[in-house]
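User: I'm writing a tutorial on reading structure tokens. Could you give me a worked example: one chain, its sequence, then its tokens, then a sentence or two explaining what the tokens reveal?
Assistant: Sure. Here is the example chain.
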Amino acid sequence: MMKLTESFYYQETRGLCGRKLLREIGEHGRTKIHLYAYESWPKPALSSYWTIKTVWWSKTKCLIIEQQGHRTSLTKGHMKCLGNGRLEITGQFQRHTDAFFRLVLSSQITADDVSDGYILSGDLELGDTNDSMQQSHFAVVKLGQEQNQSISTMNEYFRKARNLLLFGCV
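And here are its predicted structure tokens:
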């Protein structure tokens, strides 16, 4: 069952340009993209995510920080709106295998995606050249990633207030 705010947010953002959504939902211009490896991908990692940092001076440039297990990589990316709520981010990492990437995110998500907390979803393709890319990961951006910290801060505040009223100490 969806909450009222999730349903409202779903209706308001469905079909919007992914680039605009990345700028809106990211805290300090940073948005975390969770990556889940497909079963056919031969190099799974226990934890895998990207952090996309948009820059204020360009609509198409971004900085990508990749975290796969213990390995961290940094590169520049190029964002392009494909229309119909889809965003393509392309670029190249400085490594020998799977250097080229293409990430396509879409705001055309289903109600199930919203109930799971996603606002953008798509696929990541990796390859040694631009012509040899294959799908490697399912990519999602979760709704309210910066709101979780404020909720935990409020919960801590209420816990301290309750302890103060009940026991007279914090």
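What the tokens reveal: Residues 146-151 have pLDDT under 50 and may be disordered. The beta strands are 30-37, 48-54, 61-68, 71-83, 86-92, 100-106, 118-127, 134-142.
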